[in-house]
């Protein structure tokens, strides 16, 4: 069985929900994926659930994209259950910034560093090489710029704290794993309620950034390994939720039961079975069918 959920707010989607659904249903039929049922989730308000006896996740998402463009959605095999593990990227996912780009601004190098970041997140550059290049450009920057950057630039995206707090209240463990830096990730994790943080470390000597990394690189492989390690500790059958936006999040997103691309780069979006293109991160709670009365404000 395949379950598809999408946020179908009448105020946004218009009065032609039935017309769109009929057109999508005809396309599903033509592709051999007959729609078994379609109904609004009773306690989730504006969430439409579609059920299929047989179907393909990618094919279903392709059809939904054509008829419900821009709608936040999740397509999952079997029933949708509460996750017991949440593993998330940080930059441009839990926070609205790319920390290294903002830090580079204190060295007058934001445009140059941001251009490399964008290409790396699009999957056009080797992540490790691009990371070393960007960190190298920061050599000599005063370590105090990190604290200034945190205080002046770094902000959670809407819904991030509520998402983490609500999942925690439901018994879900949250892990922040980033290709960014512990200097930023540790305070962000504390702010949002994550229980573990994995990331890179900037080299510092004499109060200045050395332009090198201290320790091994945290990259796409690290993100996947962290997810697998944490999932194994929970035992068989534990559902996993992940969120990310860039190419280095793809293995982690693909390995999760509910892998969400949050306002993501095309390659990451294509790898996900969940998409948040319109709403904030609380859209994930809606798609998991957690009633808003049970959300934990943070």
TrEMBL record:
**EC number of this enzyme:** 3.1.3.3
Would you say which domain of life the source belongs to?
Answer: Bacteria
The UniProt keywords, alphabetically, are: Amino-acid biosynthesis, Hydrolase, Magnesium, Metal-binding, Serine biosynthesis
Record bears the keyword Metal-binding: yes
What this protein catalyses is:
O-phospho-L-serine + H2O = L-serine + phosphate; O-phospho-D-serine + H2O = D-serine + phosphate
List, from the UniProt record, the residues annotated as the active site of this protein: 89 (nucleophile), 91 (proton donor)
Pathway connected to this protein: Amino-acid biosynthesis; L-serine biosynthesis; L-serine from 3-phospho-D-glycerate: step 3/3
Q: What Gene Ontology molecular function terms does this protein carry?
A: L-phosphoserine phosphatase activity; magnesium ion binding
Question: What family does the database annotate?
Answer: Belongs to the HAD-like hydrolase superfamily. SerB family.
What's this protein's name?
Answer: Phosphoserine phosphatase
Q: Which organism is it from?
A: Qipengyuania marisflavi
Q: Which gene encodes it?
A: serB
């Amino acid at each position: 069985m395949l379950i598809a959920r999408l946020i179908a707010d009448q105020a946004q989607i218009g009065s032609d929900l039935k017309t769109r659904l009929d057109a999508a249903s005809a396309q599903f039929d033509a592709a051999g994926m007959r729609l078994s049922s379609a109904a609004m989730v009773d306690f989730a308000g504006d969430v439409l659930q579609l059920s299929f006896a047989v179907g393909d996740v990618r094919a279903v998402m392709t059809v939904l994209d054509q008829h419900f463009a821009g709608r936040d959605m999740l397509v999952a095999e079997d029933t949708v259950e509460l996750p017991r593990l949440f593993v998330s990227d940080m930059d441009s996912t839990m926070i609205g910034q790319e920390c290294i780009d903002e830090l580079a601004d204190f060295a007058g190098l934001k445009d140059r560093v941001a251009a490399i970041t964008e290409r790396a997140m699009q999957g056009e550059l080797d992540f490790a090489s691009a990371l070393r290049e960007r960190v190298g450009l920061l050599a000599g920057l005063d370590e105090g710029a990190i604290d200034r950057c945190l205080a002046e630039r770094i902000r959670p995206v809407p819904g991030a704290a509520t998402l983490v707090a609500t999942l925690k209240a439901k018994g879900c463990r949250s892990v922040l794993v980033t290709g960014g830096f512990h200097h930023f990730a540790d305070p962000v994790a504390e702010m949002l309620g994550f229980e573990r943080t994995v990331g890179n470390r900037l080299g510092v000597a004499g109060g200045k950034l050395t332009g090198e990394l201290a320790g091994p690189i945290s990259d796409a492989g690290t993100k996947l390994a962290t997810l697998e390690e944490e999932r194994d500790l929970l035992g068989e059958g534990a559902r996993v939720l992940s969120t990310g936006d860039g190419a280095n999040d793809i293995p982690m997103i693909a390995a999760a039961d509910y892998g969400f691309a949050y306002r993501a780069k095309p390659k990451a979006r294509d790898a996900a079975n969940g998409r948040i293109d319109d709403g904030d991160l609380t859209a994930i709670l809606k798609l998991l069918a957690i009633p808003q009365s049970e959300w934990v404000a943070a």
